[in-house]
Amino acid sequence: MTTTTTTAAPATGAPPAWRGLLSGSTVGPLAALLLASAFFAIRTDTFLTGGNISLIIQQVMVVGTLAIGQTLIILTAGIDLSNGAIMAFGGIVMTKLAVDGTVPPLVAILLGILVCTAFGLANGMLVTRISLPPFIVTLGMLNVAFALTHIYSNEETVTGLPSSLTFLGETFPLGRTDVTYGSVLAIALFLLFAYLLGQTAWGRHVHATGNAPESARLTGIPTKRLLLGVYALAGTVYGIAALLLVARTAVGDPKAGQTDNLDSITAVVLGGTSLFGGRGSVIGTLIGALIVGVIRNGLQLMGVRSIYQILITGVLVILAVTVDQLSRRRTR
Fold first, then answer.
1. Which domains does the chain have, with CATH numbers?
2. For position 328, what pLDDT does the model report?
3. For the chain: N or C, fewer Cβ within 10 A?
4. What is the pTM of this model?
5. Residue 24's pLDDT is what?
6. Which of helix, strand or coil describes residue 176?
7. How far is Cα 96 from Cα 85, in angstroms, rounded to an integer?
8. Positive or negative, the Cα torsion across 268, 272, 276, 281?
9. Of 281, 283, 277, 267, nearest in space to 324 by CA
10. Is pLDDT above 90 for 65?
């Protein structure tokens, strides 16, 4: 009797998390970030100071966290136009419940995150069960969340928040620089999702579903259930972004997040994630968010009008999508 030994084929899919900075999709964005940083370091005296670097991270942590959820959805060849409005509604729910004394502050935070998760789940249900296009679903949900935010808040900003809601906006010294707890949480989230997408079977399934959904389904991946989970998880991330926003501003603002949906898409695209799905990483998204933050901060230090910051960002997005499209054509 003879025995045979079989060797498992190497798994395919997303690259390991530790290789995120070295993967093809992030080399270009990383080079752009370094070049932009070098340019502003030469042109201004304060760009590379610890206080300014900390400020840049604080400025991008909310949009960056939103962009984590956006990355998950774009990797599956979808898009989410509603994330900024969902975040704003979650922030209003947290702050009103906590300030009114309806529930303890920690419970109010949990309920705000759960509300955002419910919005994400609703998006996922419409996409997977009724097969509606993600663009249309999330465009409609943007209006729903926007309207509910203004109805529930009665058009009023919520102030006088308890310390539990603003704790993440507080700072601690790191050398000679003050760093917010919220910045640490945002970076931890990026590392967590880099691991999940790069080192787990779930992450490989997300990439496979975005790259070729029918092929993924035929290999046994429950694509509809996976998509539903991705949208719900993205909603949870939007809830955490709501908490970070509340902590940074110390108010519940019904007008918050009105352009953050586009800013999160910008971060994802500049980070090298393909709008056609299946290729990209949250490490790239972090780099993309930092590119936007560095450019806006650097131009502001140089005294350039804010309208030119928007112009340059728009040009960069078009260039990034063009490069992605050309890359796809070469690989066909």
1. 19-325 (1.10.3470)
2. 66
3. N
4. 0.89
5. 59
6. coil
7. 16
8. negative
9. 277
10. yes
